[in-house]
Amino acid sequence: MNIYAERIASLRALMRSRDWDAVILTGSDPHGSEYPAERYKQIRWLTGFTGEAADLVVTAEHAGLWTDTRYFIQANAQLAGTGVQLHKTRVPEQVLIPEWLADTFADAEEPVLAVDGASTPASFAEEIIAAFEPGGNRPLVVSAPDFLGLLWTDRPAIPQTPVITVDPGESRTSKLEMLREFCRSKACDGILLTALDEIAWTLNVRASDIEYNPLVISYLLVTEDAASWFVLKEPVEDPDTESSFDELASDGVSLEPYDGLEEFLSESGGLRLYADPSTLNWQLARTLESSGISLVSGPTPVRHAKAVKNDMEIEGMRQAHVRDGVAMVRFLCWLEKSVRADRLVSEWDASVKLRELRSQGAMYQGDSFETISAYGPGAALPHYVTPQVDAPLLEAQGLYLCDSGGQYLDGTTDITRTVPLGECSELEKEDYTLVLKGHIDLAMAMFPEGTPGCRIDAFARGPLWRARRNFGHGTGHGVGWFLGVHEGPQDVRQNLNPVPLEPGMIISDEPGIYREGMHGVRHENLLLCVERGSNEFGRWLGFEPLTLCPFDTSILVPGLLDAEETEWLNAYHAQVLETLSPLLDEETASWLQCKCRKITTFADTI
Length: 606
Prior knowledge:
Blueprint: H1 3-18, E1 22-26, H2 42-47, E2 55-59, E3 63-67, H3 72-78, E4 85-88, H4 97-104, E5 112-115, H5 122-131, E6 140-143, E7 164-165, H6 172-185, E8 190-193, H7 196-203, E9 205-206, E10 219-223, E11 227-232, H8 239-250, E12 253-257, H9 261-266, E13 272-275, H10 282-290, E14 294-297, H11 301-307, H12 311-340, H13 347-359, E15 364-367, E16 372-375, E17 399-404, E18 406-408, E19 411-412, E20 415-420, H14 426-443, E21 447-448, H15 457-466, E22 476-478, E23 487-492, E24 506-509, E25 512-515, E26 519-522, E27 525-535, E28 538-545, H16 563-580, H17 586-595
């Protein structure tokens, strides 16, 4: 039997012993993190699915995994033989977990649904309960924190890595006062921060508790006269951490055991606390309720404050992208010459080389996510996982896609380049050009103040739609300053997110095309939202590219880029060449000059 099928069978045995009708697992952790630490990759351990976004339901008769369009191909391959069925989300016919459970147990008097309360957002648990008909059968939702540990006997521990402090241009005492002022405006006694990036931003701390994410697994409780950081998991022996903790203590931040928050809250009855239900786990929400603590729910002010970068953070991001651009140009030059010289280079070899080149840059702290190094059919999976063993070799034909990023002490980067390795088909050339056209159209966008990202998403999709093509993922996400490579509240996608884009916000610009079994194309830069002037019609905003790296123009289809798009591309390449050439060796600088040469033959639109 498949090892994952065996694990699900063991889970069903546990369910029978506890009279559970269903088990629901999310792909997150106690903090609602997009990228959890190894300890919380419960769905991966149980099913073998390695995608970052998935939830799982197991009943006596059915096991289903819910994930979105980015992972359909991957899920079908990885779930084969496990007995787990794929449920598609972000499609018109989707049936999400709460509705599915309500329908499945419509005839049950009181179905018992077990969740890992520590890793289930309170908002999700409430959605499950609310999905059942009012006045009809009501489920008993049981919170069983970490129950999978009964089966996962070698489950990793909660990490505690060295903690450092950073200077982003605003002190933690100022940020704590901002939170206290917010609490006063909401008539709250305090605020409980549970999202790890919000805690790191507030306290100006970074660590490596989660791979690729410079975060500290912890909780932060801020009241009018105290700031309690629940962070300690084991004795602190690292000198950098000790120094950081001393600095925090001098600013009035007390250090508490990580597992002591529940007990602390249970003894704090009568308080009125503010918290975000999307990152507050259900176990803590139940503790608040049983302790007589009044909960005020909503997004925290940190989300918005963190998204709008200050001058020091913006300058840091610019400098980080210069160093990242140097690494990317050196990598693409090496890649092209290696393939042309018939050297054996695999997808994995390429990703290792890129990491090596990034590591040579100042302030490099590691990659910002796992590099997607994909050739040919592999690039048709938007979140392809590059194999370390028996990785496909790169050949002198077709398209190669590399989506990667770096963490630096002064910023975070995220870039995708798709490049031809040799002769390409007419379809590959057309897809490549249309995606670049969409990328440029979003980068050139001008829009009035107050415009949310969902209203400019069509800039990037328009060229593809006119050719009856599309992509299933979002066009753009926010990016943190030496924090998560994905952050909100802003984004650019078709979902109706009302959050307006503002000067100082950073988004990605990454349209794509994916043809299963054939090829994939994605072009991505990070863009800084900036002011573009005011007139009698209002204040206008636009974008400044932060990413510095050329787009390969050798396979562009004449006639698909119009004059304005061509002008943007030439100006962008001139900026790349001027900025990066002085930092490169003569051979690489010569290669870059060739890649940044002006194009003049694209005059008509599709």
